[in-house]
Amino acid sequence: MDRNMLKSAKKIVIKIGSSTLTDEEGNIDKEFIKELSDEIRKIVDQGKKVVIVSSGARIAGVSTIGKWSRKEDIHYKQALCAIGQVELMDSYRRIFWEKQLHVAQILLTKDDFGSKSRTLNIRNTLFTLIDEGVIPIINENDTVSVDEIKIGDNDMLAAYSSVLWGADLLILLSDIEGIYDKNPKDHEDAEIIYEINDVEGIKKEIDIGQKSSFGTGGVSTKLKAAEHVNKFGIPLAVVKGKEKGIISKLLEGEKVGTLIYEEIN
Ligand code: ADP
User: Fold this and answer.
1) Which atom of ligand 1 has the smallest separation from the CA of 185?
2) Alpha-carbon distance 260 to 239, whole Å?
3) Which neighbouring-strand residues pair with 107?
4) What CATH code is carried by the domain that includes residue 94?
5) How many domains, in total, are found in the chain?
6) d(CA 77, CA 84)
7) Which parts of the sequence bind substrate (predicted)?
8) Per-residue pLDDT tens over the stretch 163-203
9) pTM of the model
10) Which of 173, 213, 216 to mutate to test the pocket of ligand 1 (most atoms within 8 A of CB)?
11) With the CA atoms of 167, 107, 240 and 226 taken in that order, what torsion angle do they form, in degrees rounded to the nearest 10?
């Protein structure tokens, strides 16, 4: 895919991973949210529209209440998410408003994407918010989602949301520059893959070269999310969230991050 085509993307979903949203102490990284609000203000001023999918509720919960970080009980995990979600949205609300941007919270579960009437309601609310210039911030509704019924990963939640909205591009903000041939955290010589147009093929290549870089890591869900959105003609990009101006660079067609687009004939 010619990266210049990204310049014309009008409807953009941005998914933010937990590690991007938090600082080294595990607190919400307000500086990052400020940077993000600058980028989004710029995009909105260009007449484009943005939906955010944000992780980070549980970590925000731990840093807010200052305990339970090691609790494995599902109800404590859900309680932490309930506490952290408020904190997270409060940060978004205050920081985005400094750029005259309103935000809205949408909490979804897997069931919401399986029911026609719910999907229609979500879509209508989403379109209303966006038409009115409000930035929707989507997260999984952890309070009602136990493991068996979870979407499980916000990469997939972002993929489903992109299809539901009919987005032009899904951007995953991660803690790495893109997808590599092996885990860059374990291998100094790992090389970034700038373009992927055969997801099945890449899966095999990475799998053969470095089994451990697959399976448990976040890369497999990113490729799964890409496969899902690509089916609907939506490209997916993985970029390093904390790199200054990264969203603008990507949208200007610069060769940053990994762009995954497999054309389905
Ligand atoms: P996020 O929450 O930011 O979306 P994840 O933790 O889910 O990110 O996935 C990114 C992580 O996947 C990286 O920090 C990296 O350590 C790991 N990883 C494993 N294999 C690879 C690979 N081949 N290329 C890039 N990252 C990889």
Assistant:
1) 16
2) 11
3) 139
4) 3.40.1160.10
5) 1
6) 10
7) 55, 142, 154
8) 999 999 999 999 999 999 988 888 899 999 999 999 999 98
9) 0.94
10) 213
11) -50
